[in-house]
Amino acid sequence: MFACIIPPRSRQRTQPGDIQPLQKPFLGRYTPQTLWSLFLMCALPQHIWTLLLAFNDISWLTDRTNSWDAIGVLCYGLLFAFVESVLVFIVAAILGLLIPKNWEQNRRLALLGTFAIVLAIWGIVSQTYFLLGWRVPDAWMGFLVQSGHPARYIYSVLVVMVAATFLLPAWAVLRQGRGLKFLNALIDRLGMLMILYLVFDFAALIVVVIRNL
Amino acid sequence: MGRELNRRDFLKLASLMPLSLASPQLFKLLGAFASADVARQNVLVVVFDAFSGLNIPLNGYARDTTPNLARLAERAIVYHDHYAGSNFTTPGTASLLTGTLPWTHRAMQAKSLVVAPYQRQNLFGLFEDYYRIGYSHNGWANILLEQAKDDLEELVPWKTLFLGSYDSFLHSLFVNDNDIASVSWTRNVNLAEEGYAYSLLFSHLHRVLQESRDPELTRLFPRGVPSTGDVSSQFLLETAVDWISNRVARIARPFAGYFHLMPPHGPYHTSHDFFNRFRDDGLKPVSKPDDIFSDNLSYATLLKRRTEYDEFIMYVDQEFGRFYEALQGSGLVSNTWIVLTSDHGEMFERGISAHSTEVLYEPVIRIPLMIFEPGRETRLDIHTRTSAVDILPTLAHVTGKPLPAWTEGKVLPPFAEPDANRRIEVVRAARNPGNEPLTRASTVLVRGQYKLQYFRGYPEKGVDELAQLYDLEADPEEMTDLAASQPDVAGELLAELKAKMMEKDKPYM
Q: Rounded to whole angstroms, what are the CA distances from B22 to A123, B26, B28?
């Protein structure tokens, strides 16, 4: 699957900031640190998006119910975001099994992290499309409605587009030393930020438990 | 006429003598039979949520939203100036069920309950010797039914009339906080309403899963399958109508049924048959100035939503027509009092859409009321002002029950003389706890041609107190506030309204 972007073995060199060689292999491919970093990368965009929209909803919800219910909606939102993050992480980790075993951990993480970020960006773009009020031309809508399977067509096109947009950044990350270094540094920093969001998730869990007592 | 009685005629008349002597007893006996007949008549209240009385041609609306109601009106009593008790589900429904206004039953906030006496003093308590059955699509109304469940032989679980969904498990997972969990889940995955959702990926997966459940539903409901707004609570009105008409045909009689169905409450997901029926039809509602409580929605947005709402009303109309025919088929129409009404209205003006608003303009508080009286074959139009709290005493009256002392309603005409001094009151206090005095509330008093709208305690809008006066006869669109030009009228109505509020607040001072 990734044949076109696998660097020639002869060119693979250890870069500064590289994650250390496989110590405790998971299915022969991941260290716990790689998995943790990958999870954080999968969780970050989802949490940012959830928090942005949930905070945007809070005043509307408070007006119509009360502050406690508005906080409840936010907390459930964070829990659902956590569950979604875990599922995306599992999918990404499984996809990572397709990557040859001899890849270094930092390259494996960079590639899968790129995959997670590109996927999230597409998710955001698809929603921003509606947030900005753009409309699908009526002729297209007519075709989609008549087809009986509008979502099937839309997502088929989307899969092709996501795949295409993934290949370019993945190539940049893996073939360019700077790209790889940049992405590893980014993963380090964003991972720290994501840990803060996990604290929010924990607080949200407590709120949800209290609300369900 | 002038001929004399012959012997044969005399004997015929003489044979009736014992009967005429016994006639007082006979008539009493016949009366008792008649009462027994009345007492055996069923009562069926059908509530369509958020159904504005001003969006139906029976009340002069320009769009033909309700051809079936127009047809059925020919054998009904049609009330043209009927008011809800409030402008959203919890207080509006509680007013219907208890025959009292929100300042009395105190279920003023969303999801709140009526105060203790009204747990039993309600429609179901009134018909204690009937088979009592209740159902609501609307979760907030269902909370009120659950509160009254000791007086119900059958409280139909609200999930009964929803479509199955892969995410239904959430309702049992968060059983003590179902409402908010559902709201959050909906905001997480429901791209259909706003076009965006908290979830970046689940939301798309959700859409595919929903569509793959039954592709035919996607075609039949181009704006989405009808729902409560919660994505895991989708329903078909057809299913509900079929289920209810089958059920009431089978239960013990007499029965008293209360069925609260969600449409035309938003989201306005009409069926394929009515999709785009009114699009670009040239309707131009009166443009009204933004209110202090305006959400600043544009005229175009409001018109679009109004159009979708009107198309959804057509779906309601179609299904009520089918429901009535099913009742006819089972013979229930001839011995059942059928009441068609709503819990509150809906508005699309002054920058405000739907009913989550503090204002109490006519579209959001005027609701339809049609009563199908057993045996009635002619139409009767009632133009005097009536209130949702009148339904309970009216049903008591027509079924031969004593009028409950607790109700604030009056027996509706034509079953009683119209009250020339009738006051109509409407109360919204969604942010005022029920056990506290009314310090943050919107209220309305309609007396004669005048309507006073009184706001109290909205500091975020710069409103400590605000009174607006409208002349509903000269200005039915409520365009001109007369409070400044007719201070005497406004002052008199305001004093009366404040005195009433104070009286109702006494137990909570």
A: 87, 6, 10
CA B72, B77, B82: angle at the middle one, nearest 5? 110
Residue A56 has pLDDT above 60, yes or no: yes
pLDDT value for A28: 66
CA A198 to chain B, closest CA, distance in angstroms equals 16
Alpha carbon of A183 to those of A95, B127, B269, B353: distances in Å?
19, 72, 46, 47
Whole-model pTM? 0.79
> In chain A, what residues touch B217 (CB-CB under 8 Å)?
none
In angstroms, what separates the C-alpha of B478 from chain A's closest C-alpha?
A: 25
- CA separation for the pair B273, B115 (Å, rounded): 43
Report CA Rg, chain A: 20
C-alpha to C-alpha distance for B329 and A91, rounded to whole angstroms: 56
Structure tokens at B185: 């889940």
Within a 10 A sphere around the Cβ of B318, how many other Cβ atoms? 20
Residues of A in contact with B140 (CB under 8 A): none
pLDDT tens, position by position, B20-78: 444 444 443 343 344 445 558 999 999 999 999 999 999 999 999 999 999 999 999 99
Per-residue pLDDT at B137: 95
- Give bridge partners of residue B93 from the DSSP assignment: none
**Testing the interface with B: which of A48, A66, A84, A117 to mutate, by most B Cβ within 10 A?**
A84
Q: What is the pLDDT of residues A19-45, one digit of tens each?
A: 455 455 566 678 888 899 999 999 999
Query: What is the phi/psi pair of residue B347, to 5°?
Result: -135, 150
Q: A54 and B181: CB-CB below 8 Å?
A: no
**Amino acid A163: pLDDT:** 75
User: Which residues, given as ranges, of chain B have pLDDT below 50?
Assistant: 1-36
The C-alpha atoms of residue A38 and residue A75 are separated, in whole angstroms, by 24
**Which residues have a Cβ under 8 Å from the Cβ of B248 and sit 6 or more positions away?**
B42, B44, B133, B255, B257, B327, B330, B332
How high is the ipTM of this complex? 0.76
| DSSP secondary structure string for all residues of B463-509 | EEEEEEEEETTT-TT-----TTT-HHHHHHHHHHHHHHHHHHHGGG-
Residue B449's closest CA among B416, B493, B415, B412? Answer: B493
User: From the list A75, A77, A130, which residue is nearest B188 (CB)?
Assistant: A77
Closest-CA residue of A relative to B357 is: A64
Task: Region of B350 please: left (phi>0), alpha (psi -120 to 50) or beta.
Answer: left
Q: Could you tell me if B336 and B43 are in contact, meaning their C-beta atoms sit under 8 angstroms apart?
A: yes
- Strand spans (E) along A58-203: none
pLDDT in tens, B210-253: 777 777 888 899 998 999 888 778 899 999 999 999 999 999 99
Please indicate whether residue B434 or residue A186 has the higher confidence score (pLDDT). B434
